[in-house]
């Protein structure tokens, strides 16, 4: 790993993606929860079909539901309402004492952990401890269908939270604290993956915390500074447009332009387009196995913006002596969507590096 990557990784770990001033960091505590009967989905989200997730490879197990163990817990990651992290864990009920690999799955914008249940069940059937969380201001951490957008606007105006990426990454660091202490989890075999916003969370969490030993961000990796420099920021901005509109008004602008975008990123996610951007943080994950899956026509994560981070990552893995630990897959003709082949590629990658033994 070169000095640039080491510096980025060090900054991420030390900063913890948090403003520590005025926040009391608390020891991770666990509270028992209950299954969510009516999951919260926000905005104008069209849930559609779970067919893509249901295509994930699974074991054919008799009476699978009878042997499936479900845990609903809350981790206390900091003081305050949003410091209560909802966690859903699925695994197969086993009598042996062998530690198993765990994989953390993170949902996309406006969804929640319950949406990912088909993936959790598929991985659990294959012997993994399958874990999912509600990102900040999502799922059980939302009180209305506009909670996430309101949090983004509040972050712009007050600068006291970082709901877009970094606050959830802090939760993922605390989740790792919990997972490595579980008797059924192998602390050296914890993977992380996610779709879209969840892919960003997976990417940054792995860059910040080496305990995530295998990472697969799906349609989430992008070059934030590249997008601003090349006038390709519009689709990403549209995904959380209300905060940019609010900033436009506050800055006295008639339209959202590059200056507005730059100021919003600097305010709600400091360093996102500089020392924490993909050209530094993607190679910082080396030498841990990393698979990046991308749509070739994705407007939110433009392919051209990944040339530098991918080339730097390939070089970092070569220097580490393990070029086979890095792979970049692009699906031609696919926009910002997760496909069945992406789900299969992620599954194969995890099985290659984390596969449960003698399940």
UniProtKB/TrEMBL annotation:
SUPFAM superfamilies linked to this entry: alpha/beta-Hydrolases
Limits of the Peptidase S9 prolyl oligopeptidase catalytic domain: 123-337
GO molecular function, a single term: serine-type peptidase activity
GO BP of this protein: proteolysis
Name listed for the protein in its UniProt record: Peptidase S9 prolyl oligopeptidase catalytic domain-containing protein
Species whose genome carries this gene: Dendrobium nobile
């Amino acid at each position: 790993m070169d000095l640039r990557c080491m510096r980025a990784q060090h900054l991420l770990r030390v900063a913890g993606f948090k403003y520590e001033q005025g926040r009391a960091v608390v020891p991770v505590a666990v509270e028992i929860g209950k299954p969510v009967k009516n999951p919260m989905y926000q905005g104008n989200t069209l849930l559609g079909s779970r067919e893509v997730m249901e295509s994930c490879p699974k074991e054919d197990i008799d009476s699978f539901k009878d042997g499936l163990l479900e845990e609903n817990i809350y981790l206390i990651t900091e003081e305050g309402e949003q410091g209560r992290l909802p966690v859903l864990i699925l695994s197969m009920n086993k009598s042996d004492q062998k530690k198993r690999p765990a994989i953390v799955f993170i949902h996309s914008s406006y969804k929640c952990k319950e949406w990912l249940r088909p993936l959790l069940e598929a991985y659990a059937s294959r012997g993994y401890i399958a874990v999912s969380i509600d990102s900040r201001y999502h799922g059980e951490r939302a009180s209305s269908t506009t909670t996430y957008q309101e949090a983004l606007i509040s972050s712009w105006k007050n600068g006291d939270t970082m709901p877009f990426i970094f606050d959830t990454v802090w939760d993922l660091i605390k989740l790792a604290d919990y997972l490595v202490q579980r008797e059924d989890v192998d602390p050296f075999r914890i993977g992380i993956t996610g779709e879209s916003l969840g892919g960003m969370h997976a990417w940054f969490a792995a860059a910040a915390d080496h305990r995530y030993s295998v990472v697969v961000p799906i349609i989430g990796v992008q070059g934030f500074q590249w997008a601003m420099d090349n006038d390709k920021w519009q689709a990403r901005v549209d995904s959380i447009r209300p905060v940019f509109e609010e900033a436009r008004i506050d800055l006295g602008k008639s339209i959202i332009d590059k200056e507005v975008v730059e100021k919003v990123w600097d305010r709600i996610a400091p360093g996102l387009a500089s020392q924490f951007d993909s050209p530094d943080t993607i190679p910082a994950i080396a030498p841990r196995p990393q698979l990046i899956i991308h749509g070739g026509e994705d407007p939110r994560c433009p392919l051209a913006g990944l040339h530098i981070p991918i080339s730097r990552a390939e070089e970092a893995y070569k220097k580490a002596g393990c070029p086979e630990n890095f792979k970049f897959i692009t699906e031609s003709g696919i926009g910002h969507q997760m496909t069945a082949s992406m789900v299969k590629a992620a599954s194969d990658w995890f099985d290659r590096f984390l596969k449960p033994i003698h399940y």
